[in-house]
Amino acid sequence: MADDPRTTSAADPSDPSGSSGEPPRRSLWRRYLDIPLIWKLAVALVLGVVAGLAVGEPITVIEPLGDIFLRLLSMLVMPLILLTLVSGVASVSPTTLGRIGGKAFIYYLVTTAFAMAAGIGLALLISPGAGLTLDGTEEVEEQSAPPLSQVLTDIVPENIFSALADGRVLAVMFFALVAGVALAFLQDSGEERLSSLAADLRRVVDGGVELVFLIIRGVLQYSPIGVFALIAVVVGETGADALLPLAKLTGVVYGGIAVQIVVYTVILLLFRAPIGRFFRAAKEPMLTGFVTRSSSGTLPVTSQAAEKLGVGKGVYSFTLPLGATINMDGTAIYVGAATVFVADVTGAQLTLAQLATVAAVGVLASVGTAGVPGAGLIMLTMAVTSAGLPMGPVALVAGIDAILDMGRTVCNVTGDLTGTRVIAKSEKGMLAEDAGRRARPDSAVEREEAPGRPRIR
């Protein structure tokens, strides 16, 4: 008699599924990893709002969970900038690098100028501060950005380790650019010993890049917990009623951000970029920027999104850190709208010359203010002072700065990624058009880099 197939399968020691022949049950952790990150973040966002409204100020007890998330992201920013920029620059000729830098700088200045105009225009149309008074308003201490001469001098670090520890992005970028260019020349050296050493050093740098990205993937799995804590604390401290007097300003700022994202979409269409694919890759850095309120802190996630779009490291390793430092489209919208709001509250009528001064100050100040939470308040105080307005009403805006900062960071991050995608398209060999067809689905990319992913250098 033939063997019973059920008995055979049960006795087969090579069957990893056990005696039943069924696939093994996945662990709870594996099921969690299989859920797309965007859905985990969205659920955490909603639960954070609900918890903040239900519990109120006592919810601040979970604030350390959010602080840990911010610290994890901050921990990765400097190594990411240093390693990816050295690796990227070493793979690009100095001529190409100069073109990329020029295009990035022009793009960021033009979009920031448009964003400032959009913020001022919408605010003048709606008059968000009409009807409010100065009663009970606290005086806010004026903040100032460093002079331009100091900004330019500080780009060259006295000590690279000090610059890394202090988080001075421009100084670290300067060192990484110099090191990358030097490594590129070493690789092309005619002396075999030098070229061999350069190849070894390049492998070490590339290995460091892969190590940082591996850590990033682990941090992203913790991000829903951090998102929940951050949102719950903000809502618990602010409360729904605190937003009502400034609802019009909030609407103007977010309306301006929506207009700016439409502008990004038009730019992408002009360069024949697939819109659906772009926003599928951009959704995670956009949401991360929303909850962390930091363009610099979102760099690890934005860099991964650039890789998903097929952008070469030679482009995104330079344009993204630069954009996180000088590209403040969302902040420009906020500064323009908030300056008009301050004028409304004080009953002042802004002249055309004052509006032009505010726009110019906002655009130029973006070069001297870092892409970190709260930098917008510095730009706002500069704009209000340049327009000759009193500082008192800035306290009203400062009360909801966290809410507005969430939206403007989304705009900043989206602008960085748009510019990076457009510049990569304009540079030969810096964009893998078929990267999306070879990449794994989003949920798999979050867990593990695809072995066959394109590596455009």
From TrEMBL:
Record key words, sorted: Cell membrane, Membrane, Symport, Transmembrane, Transmembrane helix, Transport
Domain of life: Bacteria
Location of region: Disordered: 1-24, 432-457
Keyword Membrane: yes
Membrane topology: Multi-pass membrane protein
PANTHER family: PROTON/GLUTAMATE-ASPARTATE SYMPORTER, PROTON_GLUTAMATE-ASPARTATE SYMPORTER
Protein name per its UniProtKB record: Dicarboxylate/amino acid:cation symporter
UniProt organism field: Nesterenkonia halobia
Lineage of origin: Bacteria, Bacillati, Actinomycetota, Actinomycetes, Micrococcales
